[in-house]
Amino acid sequence: MKKGLFIVFEGPEGAGKTTVIKELESLFTDSNIEYIFTREPGGISISEQIRDIILNKDNVEMDGRTEALLYAASRRQHLVEKVIPALEKGKIVLCDRFIFSSLAYQGYARGLGMDNVMEINNFAIEGHMPDLTILFDIDPREGLKRIHINSEREVNRLDLEGIEFHEKVVEAYHILAKRYENSTVIVDASKSLAEVIEKVAKEIITFIERKGYI
Ligand code: TMP
């Protein structure tokens, strides 16, 4: 049986991932590709509950390792309950954030160490790495400016970190893009929304064609 493809969208705050994903959804609906869209942390009830705890602005006491473990726990449940079953049915899984987020935010920006964070995540994901990661690349200052302009978007606990934190997130993403260059594509997210959508759609179509899906 044909196994599905796991495609992940990554990037710093305000890179426009969520907006682009919404637009892509209509593109996919009009095709006959079998897919699901989902997100981390969240995507299913248990993981959405964990998301609420992690991102709650009142949880100022949260320790960095607790945060990393909660993201890994949320990831584990989402993976076994939603992602793996869809892949086993041969579907394309399009997921807003995955392990790179933990490596960049907790491992690098929070200073826990990418190797330490990888270790707890290895326990959580048991080798289920993305087939393709699309990295939305943007200057962190530009990204933060965008989220402050977009009043519809709720500001979460991690958004409140200083600019140095967000600069480190972007630096880490660049390190990861090099480390996983065979499965990562970088998209310039400072371009117009229409250009970014076109580029991301093209990358996905090329990838799934190459894998013999269409
Ligand atoms: P979102 O706003 O893209 O939905 O992501 C929620 C926040 O959680 C965002 O600030 C990035 C952060 N995050 C981590 O720090 N580590 C992770 O592993 C994930 C998945 C998200």
TrEMBL record:
Keyword Kinase among UniProt keywords: yes
Any GO MF annotation of the entry: dTMP kinase activity
Residues making up the signal peptide according to the UniProt record: none
InterPro entries linked to this entry: P-loop_NTPase (IPR027417), Thymidylate_kin-like_dom (IPR039430), Thymidylate_kin_CS (IPR018095), Thymidylate_kinase (IPR018094)
Entries under Pfam families matching the protein: Thymidylate_kin
Enzyme class: transferase
Binding residue positions for ATP: G11, P12, E13, G14, A15, G16, K17, T18
Keyword vocabulary terms for this entry: ATP-binding, Kinase, Nucleotide biosynthesis, Nucleotide-binding, Transferase
Catalytic activity: dTMP + ATP = dTDP + ADP
Highest taxon above the source species: Bacteria
GO biological process: dTDP biosynthetic process; dTTP biosynthetic process; dUDP biosynthetic process
Cellular-component GO terms for this entry: cytosol
EC number: 2.7.4.9
UniProt domain Thymidylate kinase-like: residue ranges: 9-199
NCBIfam families: DTMP_kinase
Cited function: Phosphorylation of dTMP to form dTDP in both de novo and salvage pathways of dTTP synthesis.
Protein family according to the UniProt entry: Belongs to the thymidylate kinase family.
Protein name according to UniProt: Thymidylate kinase
Gene name of the encoded protein: tmk
